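Exercise 7.
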Amino acid sequence: MEFGSTTLNYTLKNELAKNKVTLSFSTKNKLSTILKPLPRRSKNLGEKTGVYKLSCDDCPKFYIGQTSRSFRTRFREHLPSSRSTTNSKTRSAYAAHLIDSKHKYSNFEKNVKVLNVCKKGRYLDCVEEFQIYKAVKTEPDNVLNEQVVFKSNILYNTAMGVLDEDSRNRRRPTHTTITTRSAD
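Solution. The predicted structure, written as tokens, is:
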């Protein structure tokens, strides 16, 4: 049973308990659902907001960031400016990498991967931090973000395990479990 009206759910639970039946609730709002990667191509994805990954054309290096403006707008802001190399480098680690290495970028479709779509606020900050943490743990030599010192984070490590397990066991049905207790 999906968790809905609190009063209704607990009334039902109490009535079933009188007959020695235990009702357990489940939710579709799971960590693996919230943090799962999005399909690369989605309608109007460039106009949405959230967490993104910028990739270099010439090497495996990448930058992970967040935006409350559109992904396309934020991508343009990361690109090196032809007017001033110094301003571009201070404005973006991605631009600094492209300039210093003399590497290239192609376009939004090739260089931007949307990791999560979400609105600004604490949720966006948390999802970005998780994505950076995951990248630092899995590809530490390729992350262009200024390295924040991450200690072993039990929540993020658990989330990474949940995501791995979820990808192995795709499409497990969400269901309600009803168990009966034997009368002792």
